[in-house]
């Protein structure tokens, strides 16, 4: 994803340019590219008018099919999200058509807002119109991965693999930042995919061995099998894994070291888990991530969850990645 800081109207055009360029890169036609430009413009304008500035994130969904544009602010929040979506509503003395226009142009919109904490808006534009306006997104996974300010590439990478009902989440944080870090993390993902059928500790050992010619990386793997109701987790270094269930977060155990270099022991740990969130995040976010200030966050789209955590816990001086897997209670595997 690309992050654009929006503090005044001069950055609105920059957000629009990035959204248009990403749409073109994804092969969108002129009409869908125009929708992306309008959504980015309205969201960025709202940040200036209502949120005292914030960030626009532009990227694609897990499968790379749909364009995602996220607006993040740490403003006063919305007391009535539904009311704010109605045309004519405004708290800034404007015509009040901004969010209404966003809803009409996007194929999917999700909003999370808390008074005194801020607002996050996720929009998704589907060039094939698969989801349809206002319909729920069937997403189980979402991620935000942002390069260190001033760098053209992110030194973190992430991936998801599925086998039957089981899913395996992976995040690699290349040592340092920039191109060499990106090469290490991308190689880690290649190894993860190549050896995906192995047990978690064996898979991690293969990743470790395959990174010896790179600068190395911190890596973590979390595999959830709904049939066994367990998460198997193994990590080397400081890619943190947490399980979040009804607002309570439990951190999983990582072993010290750097994959590709210094690893004393590879060990997997098992945790009971049935529904909730599995979250992996790199050290571009502060330690001690908590969810207690976000009532009902687990109901949000996983990309929106990742974006909120990035907004509030990012150090803003390193690559930052948050990967979220979501298993709502009562849903089939």
Short summary:
The protein has helices at 10-25, 30-50, 81-85, 98-105, 179-194, 200-210, 302-313, and strands at residues 2-6, 54-60, 67-73, 108-114, 118-125, 141-146, 156-163, 166-174, 217-225, 230-236, 240-245, 248-251, 269-272, 276-281, 320-327. With 333 residues, the chain is of the alpha+beta class.
Explain the overall architecture:
The structure is a single chain. With 333 residues, the chain is of the alpha+beta class. It folds into two domains: 2-125, Histidine kinase-like ATPase, C-terminal domain (Heat Shock Protein 90), CATH 3.30.565.10; 141-327, Phosphatase 2c, domain 1 (4-Layer Sandwich), CATH 3.60.40.10. The protein has seven helices and 15 strands. It has a five-stranded antiparallel sheet with strand order 1-2-3-5-4, with helices on both faces. A hairpin with a 4-residue loop joins strand 9 and strand 10. Helix 1 (10-25) packs antiparallel against helix 2 (30-50), helix 2 (30-50) runs antiparallel to helix 4 (98-105) and helix 5 (179-194) crosses helix 6. The longest helix has 21 residues, at 30-50.
């Amino acid at each position: 994803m690309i992050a654009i800081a929006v503090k005044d109207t001069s950055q609105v055009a920059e957000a629009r340019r990035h959204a248009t360029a990403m749409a073109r890169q994804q092969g969108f036609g002129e009409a869908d590219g125009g929708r992306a430009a309008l959504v980015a413009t309205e969201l960025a304008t709202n940040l200036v008018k209502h949120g005292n500035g914030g960030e626009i994130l532009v990227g694609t969904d897990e499968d790379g099919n749909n364009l995602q544009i996220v607006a993040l602010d740490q403003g006063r929040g919305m007391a009535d999200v539904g009311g704010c979506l109605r045309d004519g509503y405004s708290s800034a003395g404007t015509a009040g058509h901004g969010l209404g226009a966003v809803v009409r142009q996007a194929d999917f919109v999700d909003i999370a807002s808390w008074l005194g904490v801020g607002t996050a808006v996720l929009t998704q534009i589907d060039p094939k119109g698969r989801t349809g306006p206002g319909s729920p997104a069937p997403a189980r996974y979402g991620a935000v991965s942002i390069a260190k300010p001033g760098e053209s590439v992110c030194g973190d990478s992430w991936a998801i693999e599925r086998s039957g009902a089981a899913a395996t989440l992976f995040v690699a944080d290349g040592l340092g930042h920039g191109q060499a870090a990106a090469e290490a993390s991308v190689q880690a993902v290649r190894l993860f995919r190549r050896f995906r059928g192995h047990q978690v500790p064996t898979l991690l050992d293969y990743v470790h061995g395959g990174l010896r010619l790179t600068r190395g990386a911190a890596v973590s793997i979390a595999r959830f099998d709904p049939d066994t109701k367990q998460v198997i987790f193994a990590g080397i270094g400081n890619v943190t894994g947490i399980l979040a269930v009804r607002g309570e977060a439990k951190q999983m155990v990582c072993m010290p070291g750097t994959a590709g270099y210094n690893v004393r022991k590879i060990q997997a740990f098992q945790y009971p888990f049935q529904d909730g969130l599995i979250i992996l995040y790199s050290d571009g976010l502060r330690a001690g991530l908590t969810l207690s200030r976000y009532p009902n966050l687990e109901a949000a789209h996983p990309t929106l969850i990742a974006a909120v955590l990035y907004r509030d816990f990012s150090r803003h001086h390193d690559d930052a990645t948050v990967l979220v897997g979501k298993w709502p209670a009562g849903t089939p595997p």
